[in-house]
Structures are given as C-alpha cells and as structure tokens.
C-alpha cells in the first residue's frame, strides 16, 4: 500500500448491545462481532477475558471468576467494566499506528444523560478523536433501510437480549418510544423456569438459549419437533435428559413473549392517528436477535392487525445503521448526539 501517511484512519461505528457488541469500520463493514461479556477476577477486580472468550466461561467459572454482562438490562450497571469492554473491542480492531478515529456508539434509547456521557468518555479513553452516540432504534431503522427522514412514519421493534425497544420514527426523529426490559434473556429464563417446574430439571443459561433457538416459537408451526435436553435433576442432583416439545416451550415462554407484543401495542396506541395509518400501510419492522424467534412476526401481526416485516439481518441492523451514519456523516449528522464540541 502506498500512502504518504503511515497512519490508518479507522472511523468506526459500534453497536454496544446488551448481548452482543459489533464494530463496523468505515469503508470495510463489520469487523468484529462478540458477546458483551467480561470475565472478572473478583479478588483482584482484573478483567481476565472479554467477548467470546469470556462468554465461554459463563456457568463454568470457579467462584472467584465472574462473567459479567455490564449492559444486561439496557442500563450501564457498571461503568468501569463497560468502559473496559469498549476499550478492548476498539483496540482489537485498531491497527498499531492509527489516526484518532471518529466513533459512533449505538446506545439503548432508555439510557440517561450521565450514561450517554460515560459511553462517550469510554470512547475518548479508547482513543476517539470525537465520540457520538445514536439511539439504537434510530440506528436500527436506518440499518433496515427505513425512510427515517420522510414525513411518513416507520415503526421499528428491536428485540435484543436485555431490552425490547419500540419506536415510531418520522422526519429524522423518534416520535414515540417504549423500552421494556423483556427480551431474549427473559425468554431464556422462562424456559429455565418451565423446565424446572415441569421436570424438576435445572438447565444452564446456554442450554436454555439453545433450546429456544432450536424449537422455540411464538406461534404454532407445522411438524413441530421435540428436543432432548440435559440438565441437573433437582431431586437427585444427578445429570438427567428429558424430551421437551415445541408446544411446551411455546407455553413456557408465553409471558415474556406477550410482554414484547404488549410493548408494540402500547406504542401503536400512543401513536398519533395519521402516523398509525402510515404504519398500518407500511408494516412494522421487527429486528434484533429476538426477531429470529419463530412465528413472532405472525404473532405480532395477528395481535395488532398490522403487517410485520422481519429484517434480513436482525443481528446486524443497529451496527449497519450506525455505519451508514459514518459513511454519510454530513447527511445524517442530525441523528447523532455528542456532548463534546466539534
Ligand atoms: P443486543 O442488541 O441486546 O445485544 P441482539 O440483537 O444481539 O441483542 O440479540 C440477542 C438475543 O437474540 C439473545 O437473547 C438471543 O438468544 C436471541 N436470538 C438470537 N438468535 C435467535 C434465534 N434464532 N431465535 C430466538 N432468539 C434468538
Ligand atoms: Mg441491539
């Protein structure tokens, strides 16, 4: 590569999700996709591992190692750990010699001003020349290709690990928003509770998530399968295998699924009539990893009487949308926030 400058410019967009963090580098696309997990040694308070490596430790760590998800509930429970995680990911995708980048970070729409500044601060500590935040529903809408700047309203539902965010967007702004702390994690917990109650079997978090992904659903489907799952028998304390049907899993997760649907209904209800008519005509865009739950689209459509579209790449829409803001910075500047000066 011939370049007069040996410094590489790596402007980046980051989706700081409750479950997964993705990094997009300008001109390159997505370069990192790892779980938002940090493994901490509780004796020294040192970070032992971050991302995929830390997630592998969940549920199998000795007592003094704790795998922490610092954004689990869509709020930054631990600033210090969030900052360490963000810095680690930024460093990981940065070349040795780099020009200080512009960094856009997607944040849950429910976070406070203090948290927003803390995220910016973390980006500065990690070497940003200028840090911006973008509300995740806005980034998701842009990432799904919705016409956020038009007067016509769009509705986006982003179902992540810790939170479900519903937003109605028109003319470049969020008109109505609802963020609830019910999403993929609560669905996993409901699977655990169900199997505990029905089979006296204790499942690990990972097993519950895998069962949900394999056969979970929000609406009946044809040829519903069953799955064998292994856990610990709560009576004998020994490992045990049971067979669970798709219908049982659907019943087990009914409560959190209904809470997600209710968040959508609540937002529709709060939407001014003209905008609601736009949404009826154009449909509701569902995204985030939770959008992959089988039949959720049909379920939301049937309960709201509104067409539903599932995004093509639900796990990537936020980072892709923030990436579009990076690529077309001047055109989309107004959807970004920053407390620093430009
Ligand atoms: P966040 O933005 O909060 O980090 P993501 O958008 O990355 O969250 O989505 C993570 C959630 O999506 C997890 O709860 C995960 O279990 C769920 N998920 C991923 N794939 C599927 C699937 N195939 N079926 C159901 N849920 C899924
Ligand atoms: Mg997300």
Description:
It is a single chain. This protein is of the alpha/beta class. It contains 12 helices and 18 strands. The strands form 5 sheets. Strands 4-3-2-9-10 form a 5-stranded mixed β-sheet, with helices on both faces. β9, α3 and β10 form a beta-alpha-beta unit. The longest helix has 17 residues. It starts with 7 loop residues before the first strand and ends in a 10-residue tail after the last helix. The mean pLDDT is 93. Magnesium ion binds next to loops.
Low-confidence stretches: none
Helix share bin? 25-40%
The ligands found in this model are: adenosine-5'-diphosphate, magnesium ion
Q: In one word, what is the shape?
A: flat
Helical stretch count? 12
Question: How are the strands ordered across the major sheet?
Answer: 4-3-2-9-10
Radius of gyration: 21 Å
Number of distinct beta strands? 18
């Amino acid at each position: 590569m011939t370049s007069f400058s040996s410094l590489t410019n790596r402007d980046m967009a980051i989706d700081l999700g409750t479950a997964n963090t993705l990094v997009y580098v300008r001109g390159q696309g997505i370069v990192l996709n790892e779980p938002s997990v940090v493994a901490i040694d509780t004796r020294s308070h040192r970070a032992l591992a971050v991302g995929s490596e830390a997630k592998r430790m969940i549920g199998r760590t000795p007592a003094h190692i704790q795998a922490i998800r610092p954004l689990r509930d869509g709020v930054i429970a631990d600033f210090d750990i969030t900052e360490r995680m963000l810095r680690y990911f930024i460093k990981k995708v940065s070349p040795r010699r780099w020009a200080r980048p512009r960094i856009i970070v997607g944040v849950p729409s429910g976070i406070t001003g203090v948290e927003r500044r803390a995220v910016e601060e973390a980006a500065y500590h990690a070497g940003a020349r200028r840090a911006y935040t973008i509300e995740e529903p806005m980034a998701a809408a842009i990432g799904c290709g919705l016409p956020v700047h038009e007067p016509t309203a769009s509705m986006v539902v982003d179902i992540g690990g810790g939170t479900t965010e519903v937003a109605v967007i028109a003319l470049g702004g969020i008109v109505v928003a609802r963020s609830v702390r019910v999403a993929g994690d609560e669905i996993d917990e409901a699977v655990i509770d169900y199997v505990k109650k029905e089979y006296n079997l204790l499942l690990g978090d990972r097993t519950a998530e895998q069962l949900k992904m394999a056969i979970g659903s929000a609406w009946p489907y044809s040829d519903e399968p069953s799955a064998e799952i292994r856990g610990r028998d709560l009576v004998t304390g020994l490992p045990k295998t049971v067979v669970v049907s798709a219908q049982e899993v659907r019943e087990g997760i009914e409560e959190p699924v209904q809470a997600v649907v209710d968040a959508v209904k609540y937002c529709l209800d709060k939407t001014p009539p003209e905008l609601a008519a736009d949404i009826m005509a154009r449909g509701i865009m569902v995204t985030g990893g939770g959008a992959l739950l089988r039949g959720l689209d049909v379920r939301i459509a049937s309960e709201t009487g509104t067409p539903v579209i599932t995004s093509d790449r639900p796990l990537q829409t936020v980072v892709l949308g923030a990436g579009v803001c990076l690529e077309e910075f001047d055109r989309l500047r107004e959807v970004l926030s920053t407390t620093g000066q430009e």
